Amino acid sequence: MLPSNQASWRKANLTCKIAIDNLEKAELLQGGDLLRQRKTAKESLAQTSSTITESLMGISRMMAQQVQQSEEAMQSLVTSSRTILDANEEFKSMSGTIQLGRKLITKYNRRELTDKLLIFLALALFLATVLYIVKKRLFPFL
Fold first, then answer.
1. Is 0.70 topped by the overall pTM?
2. DSSP string, the chain
3. pLDDT tens digit string along 8-67?
4. Which residues, 6 or more positions from 135, have their beta carbon under 8 angstroms from its beta carbon?
5. What gap in Å lies between CA 40 and CA 36, rounded to an integer?
6. Span 111-138, pLDDT tens digits
7. DSSP of 90-104, one letter per residue?
């Protein structure tokens, strides 16, 4: 009985060892799949990160272009502002000249009116004098 128990115990032990070896082989094979999956996952992560890096670099270049365009626009605005300020100063000086011209024209218009009035009065005096002389010569008794 002891030898048969030992033999059955050895068989059971051998069967368990074979089962354990098979399980370890299966785990190793699955572990290999996991390694492959990890490798492919790492590769896809590396590819994704390089794609994201390229995208960020493209965005950075676009932002740099936008900043350059903004600087050019700002420079153009500064130049335009200077031109407008210069034109404004010139218009102010022209406005002063125009106001002075308007004052002079109104002054000359008043003088013209005064001159016309004086000429009319001088003409009336002249005609009165001529009529007086004619009256004295033609009608001395009146």
1. no
2. -HHHHHHHHHHHHHHHHHHHHHHHHHHHHHHHHHHHHHHHHHHHHHHHHHHHHHHHHHHHHHHHHHHHHHHHHHHHHHHHHHHHHHHHHHHHHHHHHHHHHHHHHHHHHHHHHHHHHHHHHHHHHHHHHHHHHHHHHH-TT-
3. 777 877 888 888 888 877 776 666 556 666 677 778 878 888 888 888 888 888 998 999
4. 142
5. 6
6. 999 999 999 999 999 999 999 999 999 9
7. HHHHHHHHHHHHHHH
